[in-house]
Amino acid sequence: MRWQGGRRGNIEDRRGMGGGAIAGGGIGVTVLALIGYFVFGIDPTTTQQVASQFGGAGSRETGQVGTPEDQAGQFVAVIRASTDDVWQTRLEGYKSPNMVVYEQGTQTGCGYGQSAMGPFYCPADQTVYLDLSFWQQMETDLGASGADFARAYVIAHEVGHHIQTLTGASQQVREAQQRASGEAEANRYSVALELQADCYAGVWAKNASAASNGQVALEPGDLEEGLRTASAIGDDTLQRRGGGRVVPEGFTHGTSAQRMEWLQRGYQTGDPASCDTFSAL
Ligand SMILES: [Zn+2]
How many domains does the chain have? Predict the structure, then answer.
């Protein structure tokens, strides 16, 4: 992926802050376990147990805001600016999310966030939280070695959840889930939301080059790399890797085939209107 010449955006760097003080009650922990349950397939009950040990949202931490000097931080700053540049032209009334990089754990508007959850978006404070050590884990677990587009896809997917907060799709899904007849139906809504975020990541990828005069652009092989990542994090594949049977009712993110399909659809059309995963339910 080409990105070195891209515009740098501001991110908040909380690395080296040691996870911060842990305070407060359990409010927000459950919310975090559900909505914070990110792209990359850790069982939400595990997340919840881990989060419970730490209690809920406490005093807000603040890191340095700007462009970090290290390579990984710069990459996030460029992808952040690129997603802003694309969505400003694609969504009327677009407002940037905040973006925080952290290590190990940090306070969030949705409770205590930590590395085990992978990247996630918190609607309460409209912030994308990224633990960069997760990228190491991606390489080890998913074989996404040196894969900068795979990383960008993860960030763009989380920004996709921010778009869903702005459009009201997230809120509609939560309401529909409350009316749902059972867990299987509620999970289908989660899947639609996740696949739409994948499609939005594809929309970003398609428009990144035009929005940056070619400074941020996919190179040959990048889309395939993104599709391999999308495949590796499908619910069915993750369930198999976990040694279990594949149980479609338990899916919350979509199968490997679905995730690849929607990322590709967003990329082919470049148009968020093509990302209506809800009609496809
Ligand atoms: Zn997601």
Answer: 1
